[in-house]
């Protein structure tokens, strides 16, 4: 009960900083043109690709399973 009373009486704090710096990083990164990419398979072919990636070619080893976005080899 005492903690709740303190929380109600405390003033709200600023959380995210000023809006003057919004978009700073995106604005200073150099523009790179998009590259042409090969089209991804759709439907049944995409499901087949997922299955092969997850279960067929997956390396079974000791330790924790690596996630799909891991850059370690």
Notes on the structure:
The chain is 36% helix and 0% strand. The chain has three helices and no strands. The protein is extended and about 55 Å long. The mean pLDDT is 85.
Tell me, briefly, the overall form.
extended
Order of helices and strands: HHH
Estimate the helix proportion, in percent.
25-40%
Mean pLDDT: 85
Distance between the termini: 53 Å
Largest sheet: none
Low-confidence stretches: none
SS-based structural class?
Answer: mainly alpha
Counting DSSP E segments of at least 2 residues, the number of strands comes to 0
Strand fraction: under 5%
Radius of gyration: 24 Å
Helix count?
3
Organism: Oryza sativa subsp. indica (Rice)
Family: Belongs to the eukaryotic ribosomal protein eS30 family.
Biased composition (Basic residues): 36-48
Protein name: 40S ribosomal protein S30
Concise overview:
The chain is built from 3 helices and no strands. With 73 residues, the chain is mainly α. This is 40S ribosomal protein S30.
Protein traits:
single chain; 73 residues; mainly alpha; extended
Topology of this structure?
Blueprint lengths: L1 H8 L14 H5 L15 H13 L17
GO biological process, one term: translation
Family: Belongs to the eukaryotic ribosomal protein eS30 family.
GO molecular function, one term: structural constituent of ribosome
């Amino acid at each position: 009960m005492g903690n709740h009373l303190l929380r109600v009486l405390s003033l709200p704090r600023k959380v995210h900083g000023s809006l003057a710096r919004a978009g700073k990083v995106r604005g200073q990164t150099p523009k790179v043109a998009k590259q042409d990419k090969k089209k991804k398979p759709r439907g049944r072919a995409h499901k087949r690709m997922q299955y092969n990636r997850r279960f067929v070619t997956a390396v079974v080893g000791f330790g924790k399973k690596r996630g799909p976005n891991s850059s370690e080899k």
